[in-house]
Design goal:
Number of domains: 2
Mean pLDDT: 88
Largest sheet: none
Strand content: under 5%
CATH topology of the largest domain: Four Helix Bundle (Hemerythrin (Met), subunit A)
Oligomer: single chain
Low-confidence stretches: none
CATH class of the largest domain: Mainly Alpha
Helix content: over 70%
């Protein structure tokens, strides 16, 4: 446990924390591990008769400066953020691809005139966008798995490419999905009172919010 006599250690940890961006739990784990390592080193120096202040100074110096530590730690946080984004996208895109058509089944307007060709093209585009997101999320998880075994520069490039692809696909999917929803309401007034449409809109809105947070977290971790 840190104590009042470990001020230099705590200051060093605060400096590190201020420079890092990424998943809160992973960041906390990294800092907790660092704290334990620093305090163990301080204790070892004290047992050798080194004065407390000097023991902290030596432990901090040996542990490494923020300039030395942050790049590798930030890279680890970026991988963690990509993992989180990929997992969320996999879940959301999987549900949208499988259950997207269920929203329309049994609707009172389903047996009426076919919607315009452009509408049908937009609807098909939404399906393809989320299918692409599903494939990209799988690619993201594969890149994360490779990252645990390799530190090659090409792996870092792949991480950024997949993360950017997921973020761009999310934005495109939100725009296309929003346009499709708005157009559907204009074509069929009953869509506003159709329960599957209402439930679907609420769930998709929550999914968009969750994915947007995950994408924002990845962007902050990747560009730090």
């Amino acid at each position: 446990m840190p104590c009042s006599g470990d001020a230099l250690v705590e200051e060093h940890l605060r400096d590190l924390a201020a420079r890092l961006q990424g998943p809160a739990r992973l960041k906390s784990d990294l800092l907790t591990e660092a704290r334990h390592g620093l305090l163990d080193a301080v204790e070892a120096y004290r047992e050798d008769g080194v004065p407390p202040a000097e023991a902290q100074r030596r432990a901090v110096a040996e542990f490494g400066s923020p300039a030395q530590l942050v790049p590798s730690w930030q890279a680890e946080l970026a991988v963690g953020a990509l993992r989180g984004l990929s997992l969320r996208m996999l879940a959301v895109a999987g549900v949208l691809v499988v259950a997207g058509d269920l929203t329309w089944r049994g609707a009172s307007w389903s047996d009426g005139p076919h919607p315009p060709a452009v509408y049908r093209l937009l609807s098909a585009s939404v399906d393809w966008i989320w299918m692409g997101a599903l494939l990209l999320s799988v690619a993201g998880l594969l890149v994360v798995a490779v990252s645990a075994r390799s530190a090659r520069p090409g792996v870092a490039v792949a991480q950024r490419a997949v993360g950017a692809g997921l973020t761009g696909t999310l934005g495109l999917g939100m725009l296309a999905g929003g346009a499709l929803f708005a157009w559907s309401i204009r074509l069929w007034d009953a869509a506003l009172t159709w329960p599957p449409m209402i439930v679907g809109a609420v769930l998709v809105g929550g999914a968009y919010f969750s994915l947007t947070r995950a994408a924002g977290g990845w962007l902050r971790a990747a560009v730090r």
